[in-house]
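Request from the bench team (R.T.):
"We need a structural guess for the complex before ordering more MTE. Sequence and SMILES attached. Just send the tokens back."

Command: build protein-MTE structure.
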Amino acid sequence: MIRSVILAAAGCLATLAPAYAQELELEGLDNRPIALTRAEFAALPHTGLKVDIEGKTGDFDGVELATMLARIGAPTGKALRGPELRDVVVVMGRDGYAAVLALAEVDPMVRREKVIVADELDGRPLPAIEGPYRLVVEGDQRGARMVRMVTAIQLRRVN
Ligand SMILES: Nc1nc2c(c(=O)[nH]1)N[C@H]1C(S)=C(S)[C@@H](COP(=O)(O)O)O[C@H]1N2
Ligand SMILES: [Mo]
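Reply to R.T.: structure attached below.
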């Protein structure tokens, strides 16, 4: 009896695990995903971003998307040329929602406006409905690209 309860509980946890595993999957053009743990994400250089997008105001803090893309081999600055100009970044949410940005849009040497993957809002970790990670696009006037609950970031080439 106890054994079956324990087994059921374990099964339950295993089912819930993907939703609560706070890993961020990054996938480059080689289609080989790498997982970034919460600790690894926290150790990356962070930058603040104050926004007022469709009434969503606050001080976000997070990692520049370009910093994460560099880990999966995306070129930056002058190296971003030729076919790389048709590379796109797909940012996926846990609920299946997704938004796309051009790789060049995300490059700090191409555009001044920041694009970050936030893990904090006003000094606190993002609430579960938004986090643990949320895309924040400086300059956007609508909130549509602020993907909540980001679970995966993929680089894809458009042909
Ligand atoms: N994962 C996910 N992110 C999402 C959405 C969504 O449905 N799922 N809706 C988007 C839209 S259309 C808007 S306007 C904002 C709303 O964010 P807020 O609820 O924090 O104001 O989130 C964006 N991010
Ligand atoms: Mo929206």
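Two things stood out. The two ends are 58 Å apart (CA to CA). The chain has a mean pLDDT of 90.
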